[in-house]
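Before surveying the methods themselves, it helps to consider a single example record, giving the amino acid sequence and C-alpha coordinates:
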Amino acid sequence: MENSKLVHHNSYAQTFEELEVWKKSQDLAVEVYKATKLFPKDELYSITSQIRRAVGSISANIAEGFGRTGQKDRIHFMTIAYGSLLETKNFLYLSGRLGYISQSDLDTLIEHVVVCQKLLNSFKRSLHRD
Protein backbone atom coordinates (compact mmCIF):
# COMPACT_ATOMS: atom_id res chain seq x y z
CA MET A 1 0.00 0.00 0.00
CA GLU A 2 1.29 3.46 -0.87
CA ASN A 3 1.95 5.98 1.89
CA SER A 4 -0.34 8.94 2.57
CA LYS A 5 1.06 12.40 3.03
CA LEU A 6 1.04 14.17 6.35
CA VAL A 7 -0.38 17.59 5.69
CA HIS A 8 1.91 19.76 7.79
CA HIS A 9 5.05 17.71 8.12
CA ASN A 10 6.06 17.16 4.49
CA SER A 11 6.65 13.48 5.22
CA TYR A 12 4.67 10.29 4.87
CA ALA A 13 2.34 8.70 7.37
CA GLN A 14 2.61 4.99 8.02
CA THR A 15 -0.56 4.89 10.15
CA PHE A 16 -3.70 6.98 10.26
CA GLU A 17 -2.81 8.00 13.82
CA GLU A 18 0.08 10.02 12.39
CA LEU A 19 -2.21 12.17 10.24
CA GLU A 20 -2.65 15.69 11.58
CA VAL A 21 -6.17 15.81 10.13
CA TRP A 22 -7.13 12.67 12.06
CA LYS A 23 -5.67 14.05 15.31
CA LYS A 24 -7.53 17.36 14.94
CA SER A 25 -10.79 15.62 14.11
CA GLN A 26 -10.41 13.48 17.24
CA ASP A 27 -9.80 16.68 19.26
CA LEU A 28 -12.95 18.18 17.76
CA ALA A 29 -14.95 15.08 18.70
CA VAL A 30 -13.77 15.27 22.31
CA GLU A 31 -14.75 18.95 22.54
CA VAL A 32 -18.17 18.31 20.98
CA TYR A 33 -18.83 15.43 23.38
CA LYS A 34 -17.92 17.68 26.32
CA ALA A 35 -20.20 20.45 25.06
CA THR A 36 -23.14 18.13 24.46
CA LYS A 37 -22.98 16.80 28.01
CA LEU A 38 -24.56 20.12 28.95
CA PHE A 39 -27.41 19.89 26.43
CA PRO A 40 -30.95 19.40 27.78
CA LYS A 41 -31.66 15.77 28.64
CA ASP A 42 -34.75 15.78 26.39
CA GLU A 43 -32.38 16.33 23.44
CA LEU A 44 -30.38 13.16 24.17
CA TYR A 45 -31.96 11.18 21.35
CA SER A 46 -32.21 14.01 18.86
CA ILE A 47 -29.63 16.75 18.33
CA THR A 48 -27.17 15.35 20.91
CA SER A 49 -27.18 11.95 19.24
CA GLN A 50 -27.01 13.41 15.73
CA ILE A 51 -24.09 15.73 16.40
CA ARG A 52 -22.15 13.01 18.22
CA ARG A 53 -22.64 10.55 15.36
CA ALA A 54 -21.57 13.17 12.84
CA VAL A 55 -18.45 14.26 14.70
CA GLY A 56 -17.40 10.66 15.39
CA SER A 57 -17.81 9.84 11.72
CA ILE A 58 -15.17 12.38 10.68
CA SER A 59 -12.14 10.64 12.17
CA ALA A 60 -13.65 7.19 11.52
CA ASN A 61 -13.87 7.87 7.79
CA ILE A 62 -10.38 9.35 7.70
CA ALA A 63 -9.07 6.17 9.33
CA GLU A 64 -11.08 3.90 7.03
CA GLY A 65 -9.99 5.83 3.96
CA PHE A 66 -6.37 5.60 5.03
CA GLY A 67 -6.68 1.83 5.04
CA ARG A 68 -7.93 1.68 1.47
CA THR A 69 -5.43 0.93 -1.26
CA GLY A 70 -7.08 2.66 -4.19
CA GLN A 71 -6.87 6.41 -4.69
CA LYS A 72 -10.58 6.65 -5.59
CA ASP A 73 -11.56 4.82 -2.40
CA ARG A 74 -9.35 7.06 -0.28
CA ILE A 75 -10.77 10.22 -1.80
CA HIS A 76 -14.31 8.84 -1.41
CA PHE A 77 -13.85 8.32 2.34
CA MET A 78 -12.27 11.77 2.75
CA THR A 79 -15.30 13.23 0.96
CA ILE A 80 -17.61 11.41 3.38
CA ALA A 81 -15.52 12.71 6.30
CA TYR A 82 -15.89 16.24 4.92
CA GLY A 83 -19.66 15.81 4.70
CA SER A 84 -19.75 14.69 8.33
CA LEU A 85 -17.65 17.71 9.27
CA LEU A 86 -20.15 20.05 7.62
CA GLU A 87 -23.02 18.19 9.30
CA THR A 88 -21.27 18.75 12.64
CA LYS A 89 -20.84 22.44 11.83
CA ASN A 90 -24.54 22.71 11.00
CA PHE A 91 -25.58 21.14 14.30
CA LEU A 92 -23.20 23.40 16.21
CA TYR A 93 -24.84 26.47 14.68
CA LEU A 94 -28.27 25.04 15.46
CA SER A 95 -27.21 24.31 19.05
CA GLY A 96 -26.10 27.91 19.40
CA ARG A 97 -29.39 29.23 18.02
CA LEU A 98 -31.29 27.02 20.44
CA GLY A 99 -29.25 28.36 23.34
CA TYR A 100 -27.67 25.00 24.18
CA ILE A 101 -24.14 26.40 23.97
CA SER A 102 -22.81 29.88 24.61
CA GLN A 103 -21.63 32.10 21.78
CA SER A 104 -18.10 31.86 23.14
CA ASP A 105 -18.17 28.04 23.14
CA LEU A 106 -19.77 28.03 19.69
CA ASP A 107 -17.04 30.32 18.34
CA THR A 108 -14.33 28.05 19.77
CA LEU A 109 -15.93 24.91 18.32
CA ILE A 110 -16.40 26.54 14.92
CA GLU A 111 -12.71 27.50 14.95
CA HIS A 112 -11.89 23.80 15.50
CA VAL A 113 -14.17 22.88 12.60
CA VAL A 114 -12.50 25.41 10.30
CA VAL A 115 -9.06 23.99 11.16
CA CYS A 116 -10.34 20.51 10.30
CA GLN A 117 -11.88 21.80 7.06
CA LYS A 118 -8.57 23.28 5.95
CA LEU A 119 -6.62 20.16 6.88
CA LEU A 120 -9.08 17.81 5.23
CA ASN A 121 -9.16 19.91 2.05
CA SER A 122 -5.35 19.91 1.93
CA PHE A 123 -5.25 16.17 2.53
CA LYS A 124 -7.79 15.52 -0.22
CA ARG A 125 -5.75 17.68 -2.62
CA SER A 126 -2.62 15.70 -1.77
CA LEU A 127 -4.44 12.46 -2.58
CA HIS A 128 -5.42 13.81 -5.99
CA ARG A 129 -1.73 14.51 -6.71
CA ASP A 130 -0.50 11.03 -5.68
Q: What stands out?
A: Confidence is low (pLDDT under 50) at residues 1-11. Helices lie at 20-36, 47-66, 71-97, 103-129. The first helix runs from residue 20 to 36. Strands lie at 4-5, 12-13.
